[in-house]
Specification:
This protein is an alpha+beta fold. The chain has helices at 23-28, 42-46, 51-55, 82-86, 99-102, 182-187, 201-207; strands at 7-11, 18-22, 71-73, 90-92, 110-119, 125-135, 139-150, 154-165, 170-181, 210-219, 250-254.
């Protein structure tokens, strides 16, 4: 099921950088190459078909795997100099999001989750894409997660994490992929006795091995702010408490 009107948008007022999470853009990055994955019982009926019949199959990735990381836009004024053009661009970095920082207790000013699409893969598993946003007094954090499970065959997770500490001149965007087959997990002793746990993407994340990771800075200015820079404390975030940093100029959620 595609939730075509669901979306999350965050904007940085001073730079004009806008970060959106849109289902249509996510599906544009859906892998259109042929998927070699088969359902667990496929060998039972493929062995009974002719060789010509076995060649017939979907010419697309029927698991709806997407490598979508969000949509970034930044206004470029006519005649803008090269420094202005840097704003909103991506720069690869070795810096990582400090997950321990996210566990430090702070008042949660805002939280929501938006499901962009989901599919039960013809009752052979699950595939979904959702985005969560958390706004805290000193930072905001976004988790875009694609989770796919083909029962008794394989599982994968694609996570895009975006972290911004107020007053910083950039956002951190960390993209990770995790994947393993049921057989690999069983050989490693990681398969739970209660298979219903495999429907929980947070649990699955703990047992899948990391297969890829990249981190980029999304630049909000051409140069880092001075140490004396003090962020504003006003915002127009709908229904959010006063006191949020102006770094989060507005947040729009549609569902």
């Amino acid at each position: 099921m595609v939730f075509g009107h669901s979306a999350l948008e965050l904007a940085h007022e001073q730079s004009g950088v806008v970060l959106k999470f849109l289902v249509r853009d996510a599906l544009r990055e859906w892998k259109h190459d042929h998927s070699s994955l088969k359902v667990a019982y496929s060998h039972q009926w493929t062995s009974q078909r002719s060789s010509e019949a076995r060649k017939v199959g979907p010419d697309y990735d029927w698991t709806f795997t997407t490598e979508y990381k969000g949509t970034i836009s930044a206004p470029v004024a006519e005649g803008a100099d090269a420094a202005s053009a840097v704003v909103g661009s991506l720069v690869e970095t070795e810096e990582k999001i400090d997950l321990d920082r996210l566990r430090v207790p702070e008042p949660m000013l805002f939280f929501d989750e938006v499901v962009l699409f989901e599919d039960e893969l013809a009752d052979n598993g699950d595939s979904f894409l959702s985005v969560k946003v958390r706004v805290m007094p000193s930072y905001f954090y976004v988790l875009l997660r694609f989770h796919m499970r083909v029962d008794d065959v394989t599982m994968r997770i694609h996570d895009t994490r975006i972290f911004h500490e107020y007053g910083s001149s950039h956002l951190l965007r960390e993209y990770q992929t995790r994947e393993a087959t049921y057989q690999q997990l069983a050989q490693q002793g990681k398969m739970p006795s209660d298979l219903s746990q495999l429907t929980d993407s947070n649990f699955v994340w703990t047992i899948l091995p990391l297969t890829g990771s990249t981190t980029h800075k999304i630049l909000l200015s051409a140069a880092a702010p001075s140490a004396s820079a003090t962020p504003s404390t006003t915002t127009d975030v709908a229904s959010a408490p006063e006191g949020l940093d102006k770094d989060l100029a507005h947040l729009t959620i549609s569902s």
